[in-house]
TrEMBL record:
NCBIfam families: uppS (TIGR00055)
A GO term from the CC aspect: endoplasmic reticulum
Pathway annotation: Protein modification; protein glycosylation
E.C. number(s) listed in UniProt: 2.5.1.-
Source species: Gossypium davidsonii (Davidson's cotton)
Keyword Hydrolase: no
Statement: the UniProt record of this protein carries the keyword Transferase: yes
Protein name: Alkyl transferase
Length: 274
């Protein structure tokens, strides 16, 4: 599905020139540092186009690739995509297999892009639930790109935020236990002293490699977080778009960033109050 000439096409030509002009105008305002996406509506897109669901997912992966390139050009440093939730294992095995095959293909393509553009790729989630070959490929890609800091792409796979929190709590307890500190807080006069702090939990989150998102986009017209970055999104700008994910394009991105810029003062103030 992916070919290197597709990427070269996106980077070059008059479209790229117009996009860069548009982005230059957008950069007059504050640019989000981190954009997260719930890529919903791939099967609805397939139905609409009368193609099979699997081709719909391919189109979704291509839309993600476009978003990554636009974000790099715009100056957004972190992009996080919800590729596969732990709950998605309940889908038809053939569909699960297709998304896994797509993940493997994406790992190959990302290996190429990461070298070309110094992209750090991080897979966030319960990776033990992946097959051994995908786990190996993902780990190799994470290790080989760990030194890059131009741009950080996080693919949330076998992910739910509740699983992430459980994992982080477990790791924090283990750490405190090993240090002989204990995990239960105690009364300290009128105060209650916690032995496990928020920073301990955050250190062990799968998403510890990125700051909290500034914008969380969900396509497909839904208003749910579906267990995605629930801990990290308390101060972020939520944007629900009616468009299905494979149709997400540069104008949707511009619209969302303009909306974020309009509300920026509010979010910046909220963050400072925390
Ligand atoms: C890099 C990488 C691994 C890319 C993954 C590609 C990709 C687009 C994954 C989406 C997975 C998914 C379950 C989306 C939900 O849409 P849905 O199909 O449930 O949409 P619907 O609401 O129309 O049913």
């Amino acid at each position: 599905m992916f070919r290197e000439d597709i990427i070269i096409h996106i980077f070059s030509g008059w479209r790229s020139f117009l996009r860069k002009c548009l982005f230059r105008v957008l950069r007059v305002g504050p640019i989000p540092s981190h954009i997260a996406v719930i890529m919903d509506g791939n099967r609805r897109y397939a139905k609409k186009k009368k193609i099979d669901d699997m081709t719909g997912y391919d189109a979704g992966a291509l839309a993600l690739l476009h978003l990554i390139i636009y974000c790099m050009e715009l100056g957004v440093k972190y992009v996080t995509a919800y590729a596969f939730s732990i709950d998605n294992f309940r889908r038809h095995p053939e569909e699960v297999q297709k998304i896994m095959d797509l993940t493997m293909e994406s790992v190959m393509l990302l290996t190429w892009i990461s070298k070309l553009r110094s992209v750090r790729v991080h897979f966030a989630g319960n990776l033990q639930l992946l097959s051994a070959d995908i786990q190996d490929a993902a780990k190799r890609l994470m290790e080989s790109t760990a030194g890059y800091n131009n741009f950080v792409l996080t693919i949330c796979i076998c992910y739910t935020c509740s699983d992430e929190i459980l994992h982080a709590v477990e790791e924090s307890c283990k750490e405190k236990w090993d240090d002989g500190i204990g995990i239960m807080g105690y009364d300290k006069g009128n105060d209650y002293e916690r032995l496990i702090k928020v920073v301990d939990i955050e250190k062990h989150m799968y998403m510890a490699t990125a700051p909290d998102p500034d914008i969380l986009i969900r396509t497909g017209g839904e208003y749910r977080l579906s267990n995605f970055l629930v801990w990290q999104s308390s101060c972020c700008h939520l944007s629900s778009l009616g468009t299905v994910w494979p149709e997400f394009g540069v104008f949707h991105l511009v619209w969302v960033v303009l909306d974020f810029q309009q509300n920026y003062r509010y979010f910046a103030k909220k963050k400072l109050q925390l």
